[in-house]
Every structure is written in C-alpha cells, then in structure tokens.
Amino acid sequence: MDNLQLENFLKNIAPPAEVKTGKQFAEALVPADALHELASTLKDSKETLFDFLFCITGVDFGQNLGVVYHLRSTMHGHSIVLKVMCADKNNPVLPTVSGLWKSAEFFENEVFDLLGIRFSNHPFPRRLFLEEDAGFPLRKDYTDNINIVTK
Questions:
Q1: Within a 13 Å sphere around the CA of 130, how many CA atoms are in the beta-carbon half?
Q2: Nearest to 85 by CA among 11, 123, 149, 35
Q3: How far apart are CA 75 and CA 45, in angstroms?
Q4: What predicted TM-score, i.e. pTM, was given to this entire model?
Q5: 30, 14 in Cβ contact below 8 A?
Q6: pLDDT tens string 67-97
Q7: What's the rounded mean pLDDT across residues 34-40?
Q8: Quick one: pLDDT at residue 74?
Q9: pLDDT in tens, 119-129
Q10: SS3 assignment for the chain
Q11: How is the chain split into domains, by residue range?
C-alpha cells in the first residue's frame, strides 16, 4: 500500500484517529485507549501485516508527553507512524504493545527511564540506565542539580 491507501485504511478501521500524510510516512494521532486495538489490527490484518516495530520514541511536547511508534511490514514493504499522547503529564500511562511486538519491551523501558511514561501491563517494567531515584532527563522541565546542566 502507498501512503494514501494506508491513510484510507486507517480512516476506515480507526475513526477516532486523526490521520494525515507526514513527510515520509502515513501518520495517525491515536487516542491512548484505542492504541492497543489499532496496533493489533495493523499487525494482524492481511492488508497491512505490520510485523516489525522498529522504533518507539518518547517525546516531551511541552504541555503533553507522547510516544511515537514506527511500524513496518516486511511482507508488503510499507511503513506507518502512530502517535499517542498521555492524558496526564504528572502521571503518564499508556498501554503496552509488548504483547504484539517483543521489541517493545526494551523500547518502553527506555521511554520510562528517560521520560517517566509508564506502560500498563508491561511484563517487566524497570529503569535501564538511571538509578531508581533519578529524575527523567529528557523532560523539558528537568533540572540537573548535580551536573548543573542548563538550557
């Protein structure tokens, strides 16, 4: 499928998603409560077969925290981007997709470690790089009192 076909497919299966064409991929802004169902459909549907989650990136947008998922179909050769915003910046939680793609386990732990976004039903949530009492250094409001890093 090309990006236009992927956009139309997304509009049909995920009406609450905001679908648009990005610079490189078809993109969908997905409500958090619809993420897992949409991801499962995209993975299992014979038209899409998104069997490869190649990147999860946590982002601090200022007012909101969010996560960007890059999916690829090794069978069909197309890619897509899903974006999800956390409802609460003080207690950010999103559903895990690690049951769909094993690679999500590491990516989600990395996003938690650096931004503090938790993933509900994650099989083994933990920090990867930082100590348990460390802050979340990729947040825009983070201050480093030890190394005195300023903006």
A1: 15
A2: 35
A3: 12
A4: 0.92
A5: yes
A6: 999 999 999 999 999 999 998 999 999 999 9
A7: 95
A8: 96
A9: 999 999 999 99
A10: CCHHHHHHHHHHHCCCCEEEECCCCEEEEECHHHHHHHHHHHHHCCCCCCCEEEEEEEEECCCCEEEEEEEECCCCCCEEEEEEECCCCCCCEEECCCCCCCCHHHHHHHHHHHHCCEEECCCCCCCCCCCCCCCCCCCCCCCECCCCECC
A11: 3-120
The residues pairing with 28 across neighbouring beta strands, listed in sequence order, are 19, 82
Q: What is the CATH number of domain 3-120?
A: 3.30.460.80
Q: How confident is the model at residue 149 (pLDDT cuts 50, 70, 90)?
A: low
Place of tokens 């030890």: 146
